[in-house]
DNA sequence: AACAATGTCAACCGCATATGC
DNA sequence: AGCATATGCGGTTGACATTGT
């Protein structure tokens, strides 16, 4: 049995106080990132290492770009999601100053709905067929039509891929990407070269290759 | 003004993967 | 090679804010 990442009895939970933030910032300023397990004690924080890491990465890092997402960023997230699926850290890696948590939250609260309103299934970026469209008076139509990404997508081929939860495999990626390959959307410009640098596109392609390779290894050991 | 419904986002949890021994 | 531990990731939760009735 795995040991818990920290002694839960002695750790604070919930929102961070200003003092805690300052302690964490000061410690990392002096000692740098890393060694999250020992950091809380060294920094005098009653938090677990994971919590410190999350706080730093998602909120305290000096290079974070806070505030609203620009249209370009929105566009890029949608395109990258079509390519990569729910791999938020990879997507965030292409958006300077944005974190995976931020991108994920923004996707779930804004972009998913935006795509649904455009008649696009946010899970696979296909056009929602007529019988899948939300009913006008259905109050939580979004949730009822589109299942969360981790669950079985409500698509015609949903029974082909079992709702297997395994990291490193490529269900989301291959599903979303393959669906795009044979089902181009007229209003979803997937030419990443327009708003994304060539190196970024190369990196995305490279990641996809790696993912493909990895899933092949898993499927065919 | 009061309450309910809904939206947003920071933080937590559990698992997978990476790394070191 | 196999185990133990640390780190990273994605899904989910819950508190707070906002909007509607």
Automatic annotation (TrEMBL):
GO terms for cellular component: nucleus. Residues 8-60, 61-111 form the Myb-like domain. Pfam families: Myb_DNA-binding. GO terms for biological process: regulation of DNA-templated transcription; response to other organism. It comes from the Eukaryota. GO terms for molecular function: cis-regulatory region sequence-specific DNA binding. Residues 8-60, 61-115 form the HTH myb-type domain. SUPFAM superfamilies: Homeodomain-like. It is found in: Nucleus. Keywords: DNA-binding, Nucleus, Repeat, Transcription, Transcription regulation. Residues 130-221 are annotated as: Disordered. It comes from Gossypium hirsutum (Upland cotton). The keyword Lyase does not apply. The lineage of its organism: Eukaryota, Viridiplantae, Streptophyta, Embryophyta, Tracheophyta. This is Transcription repressor MYB4.
């Amino acid at each position: 049995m795995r040991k818990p990442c920290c002694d839960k009895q002695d750790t604070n939970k919930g929102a961070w106080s200003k003092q805690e933030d300052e302690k964490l910032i000061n410690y990392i300023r002096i000692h740098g990132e890393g060694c999250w397990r020992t950091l809380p004690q060294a920094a005098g924080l009653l938090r677990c290492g994971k919590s410190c890491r999350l706080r730093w990465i998602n909120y305290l890092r000096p290079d974070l770009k806070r505030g609203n997402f620009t249209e370009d960023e929105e566009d890029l997230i949608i395109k990258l999601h079509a390519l990569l699926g729910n791999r938020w850290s990879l997507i965030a890696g292409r958006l300077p100053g944005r974190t995976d948590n931020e991108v994920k939250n923004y996707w779930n609260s804004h972009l998913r709905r935006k795509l649904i309103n455009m008649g696009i299934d946010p899970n696979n970026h296909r056009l929602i067929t007529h019988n899948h469209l939300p009913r006008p008076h259905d109050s939580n139509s979004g949730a009822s039509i589109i299942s969360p990404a981790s669950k079985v997508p409500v698509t015609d081929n949903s029974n082909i891929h079992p709702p297997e939860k395994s990291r490193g495999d490529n269900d989301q990626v291959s599903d979303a990407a393959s669906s795009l390959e044979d089902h181009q959307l007229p209003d979803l410009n997937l030419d990443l070269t327009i708003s994304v640098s060539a190196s970024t596109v190369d990196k995305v392609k490279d990641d996809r290759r790696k993912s493909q390779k990895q899933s092949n290894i898993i499927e065919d050991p």
